[in-house]
Hints:
The chain is α/β, with parallel strands linked by helices. 51% of the residues lie in helices and 12% in strands.
Amino acid sequence: MSSPAGRVYIVDDDAHLCDGVAKWLSDGGYEARAFASGGELLQEYPRLAPGVIVADMMMPNMNGLELREHLLRGGCRWPFILLTGHARAPVLTGAVEAGVLAFLEKPVRQSELLAAVMKGQAHLRGNVQIIPDPELVHRLTRLTPRERQVFDFIMDQKLNKQIGAMLGIAETTVKGYRRGMMKKLRVHNVLELVVLAVRAGVYDPPKS
Length: 208
């Protein structure tokens, strides 16, 4: 990423998940720090620089929404991303009421998490919407109509075989369009493609 690294605080009692998410974020250019509980984060909060918080919904003693409520009472308005394995309606409603920026289901995808964190960093800087990078928008305009279709399907998390079936073309043909599209956009993998899409203003992280 070309922009300065932002800070992300991960709160989850699952150490393995914390380490994995921290590595994803580090690979994405962020400075990540993990906490085993909401209590640990609250204890360190006065000494932390502003950042995006990524917290698990289901944790002992204090769940993700309760942590959010504690932070709000303390005047913290940092962007908050909630992870959960159970996307039930009451949980979604509570998350929306608490002003949660993004609500991601486990197992969370690396591209979705990074997109949500990028959106959080924009909010932290006072930008409700990420201002599209004109150079990246220009790259997208160079795609052929078929390449843009493949791009849109990839953003919708469709596999090559699924894209081929929906477009009525062979999977090998999809791979050819995909290679051409990624070469024009100057990206090497799906993660870089998602980052480009967010910075170009054509992709938002999922809300549910």
